[in-house]
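Why MFS general substrate transporter? Reviewers of the renewal asked for a concrete example.
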Amino acid sequence: MATENETAVAELPTEKDGQGAASAPAASLEPPSTDSKMENEQSYPTGVRLFMIGFGLCLAVICSNLDRSILGVATPQITTEFNSLGDIGWYGSAYLLTSCCSQMFFGKVYAHFNAKWIFLSALAIFEIGSILCAAAPDSDYLIVGRAVAGLGATGISTGALLIISRSMPVSRRPKYTAMIGAAMGVTLVIAPFLGGVLTDRVTWRWCFWINLPLGGVTLLITLFLVHIPQESGQNEAVSWSQFAQKMDLVGNTILLPCLVCLLLALQWGGTTYAWNSWRCILLLCIFAVLFLVWAYAEARGGDNSTVPRRLLKMRSILAATWFAFCLFGMLFVQTYYVPVYFQVAAGDSAYQAGIKMLATTAAMTVFFPITGVLTTATGYYVPSMIAGSVVSAVASGLMIRFGVNTSTASWAVALVLAGMGFGLGGQQCMMVPQTILEGDDIALGTSVIMFAETLSGSVFLAVCENVFETRLIRELEFRAPNADPAYVIASGASGLRAAMSQLYDVQTVDNIIESFVAALQPVWTVAVVLAALSVLGSLATEWVSVKGNDRKDGMVKQDKSSVEDGPSNETAAA
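Here is what the prediction returned.
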């Protein structure tokens, strides 16, 4: 059995090469492919069914992204109830570790198995994790639940985009991809506000119980309305060695501890332990060694690699990955530190800071669908990516001017522009793999870009945390020399003025507040740099129209078969 499968796999590239080598056979084989595509288009869901599929996928994405950032405002009550102040870091790290480390593996799974059932499995894993968190009797159970939920959330985000690519022609995907993007972006911004409401008015456990009804609706919609035809090669009988090779088990086994070491070093460095401590140095050294081993294994793996070389050779995939890494890194920085600014400078509660963040949420909600419509109308997503980078850079630049007495108009304009910038470009990078790739490569390309998005949050939040604390200590030594920096930092941003007023005079308290605001300046600078660097990714992305599956498929096939002959290309496109 294994020999027969290997023979079949070995013969497939030869047939493709044959098509590319001679223009006449390629032209003769093109019409059946076009007819097949037309038949698939006729079977795409429409009307109410299509709307319900989009609605269900948005609910799933809302669940997974709520879980990513809703816990921050609930953490004080959790640590009080469980007496677990030392576990604060693990509530976020456990989720982040499993989410980031499983991203590439899910790309391989989606590439080789039916997307519908993998998506439902990921949703089930996520809901189990939510139940473990909501019903946790102690801190250890909560950490385990967060790890399980992070694993499922990765499969949900990737699967939602892949189901869209299987449910409609490429020319109609921008609008629905924008819906998913709106759900992602808006949820990340509104999660702290919702978490504060649930924690203050009900209980922190409802931050997790809320996922059950939302996920249940998605499960029913996906189960009964989503129908993804079986693709050739899926679920075929293969030997264990072939399965391990297809799934790149060796590469993923190496990648898992590699990322764990990197993320733990970023989480601990400069906060739990000093950067020059033996723990951080050891973790970074192990990461470097494992990364080199993984890169070598991927280079030897060929087309079965988690990140095939054919994707790394495609300029648009690399550009979109860089764009996502920078723009999402900027979003994470702003989403985390803008509420800190409001709580310190204006003395707002978490709830009040969340209300002000609605300016960003509203702008995202407006510009995500506008961008989807514009991309559908023009056929090009690159202009929106460029505009998103530029507007985001302007918004981040305005945040550098945030001070203790910044007017409402000033911060409102900055937040609206931030939402507008991300609404314009945040989800357009996901159109790149859906437009220039086909078949299994869509899943792999999507997972690479989403991996960059996930990793950017952990990297740049860790960078900004270290930059912020280092600058804060320096500012406190200069502005408020009689204040204890360790105590000030441990007090946190919420209710800072009230806490400091119990120990220091009014002038010292004012100086402490000014120190906090000044310490945020390098954080905003990081956001500006990230937004500016994202422009490079948008400019490097090739201008490919989403209009017409026939054009897209012809382009991909020509690329795969290395057809460089002008007349042959025209014949194949016809």
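Residues 440-479 form the longest helix (40 residues). This is the kind of structural detail the renewal will allow us to pursue systematically.
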